[in-house]
């Protein structure tokens, strides 16, 4: 699958990025994947923290928890948003995650840490393993990469009705 770009919101209309399918993942309208933690005093985030690194770490822990609890109906909208990103990549589109923090094109990054990196990494894991090993494996693999625990075997991943619906795009 193709590389996932990360763009600052003010870059989305630049001609060099017009070919990308863009997915807004910042706070506010149109995204269920925005980072609810911020170090900025005037931010509209739910939670205030001291540093940008802490904000990204808090979101990473929440995101890992969310994808590992993917059967929880409270996360349905976020999973649907992830599914549309996965489908675009699977169908051959180059995609861009749009936020306010950073830009990453290929292996070049500009700006500070951003929660888009964890979402990008999870989309890479889905692209590599989802169709053969399932959502439970992909969620556990993301957790393993950050927590150092082993990913489950594919026989432990179990395909239930929710997973099957996710795979077939019914949710």
* Radius of gyration based on Cα positions: 16 Å
Main beta sheet, described? 3 strands, parallel
Q: Which range does the strand content fall in?
A: 15-25%
Q: Work out the number of β strands.
A: 7
Order of strands, main sheet, comes to 1-5-2
Give start-end ranges of low-pLDDT stretches. Answer: 150-160
Structural class, by secondary structure, is alpha/beta
> Shape from CA axes?
globular
What is the percent of helical residues? 40-55%
Overall average pLDDT: 83
Distance between the termini: 22 Å
Please tell me about this protein's structure.
The protein is an alpha/beta fold and 171 residues long. It is built from 6 helices and 7 strands, in the order E-E-E-E-H-H-E-E-E-H-H-H-H. Strand 6 (102-105) and strand 7 form a beta hairpin. Helix 3 packs across helix 4. The chain is globular, with a radius of gyration of 16 Å. The protein starts with a strand and ends with a helix.
Features:
single chain; 171 residues; alpha/beta; 3-stranded parallel sheet; two-stranded parallel sheet; globular
Quick structural overview:
This protein has helices at 52-68, 76-90, 116-133, 135-147, 154-157, 161-167, and strands at residues 4-8, 21-24, 37-38, 47-48, 95-99, 102-105, 108-111. Helices cover 43% and strands 15% of the residues. The protein has a 3-stranded parallel β-sheet, covered by helices on one side.
């Amino acid at each position: 699958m193709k590389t996932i770009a990360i763009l600052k919101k003010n870059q989305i209309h630049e001609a060099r990025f017009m070919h990308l399918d863009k997915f807004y993942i910042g706070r506010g309208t149109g995204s269920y994947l925005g980072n609810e933690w911020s170090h900025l005093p005037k931010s509209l985030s739910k939670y205030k923290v001291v540093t940008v690194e802490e904000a990204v770490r808090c979101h990473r822990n929440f995101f890992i928890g969310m994808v590992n609890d993917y059967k929880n109906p409270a996360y349905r909208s976020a999973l649907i948003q992830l599914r549309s990103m996965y489908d675009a990549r699977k169908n051959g589109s180059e995609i861009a995650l749009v936020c306010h923090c950073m830009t990453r094109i290929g292996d070049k990054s500009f700006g500070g840490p951003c929660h888009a990196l964890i979402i990008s990494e999870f989309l890479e894991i889905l692209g590599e393993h989802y169709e053969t090993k399932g959502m439970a494996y992909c969620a556990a693999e993301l957790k393993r990469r950050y927590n150092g625990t082993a990913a489950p075997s594919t026989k432990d991943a179990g395909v239930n009705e929710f997973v099957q619906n996710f795979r077939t795009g019914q949710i």
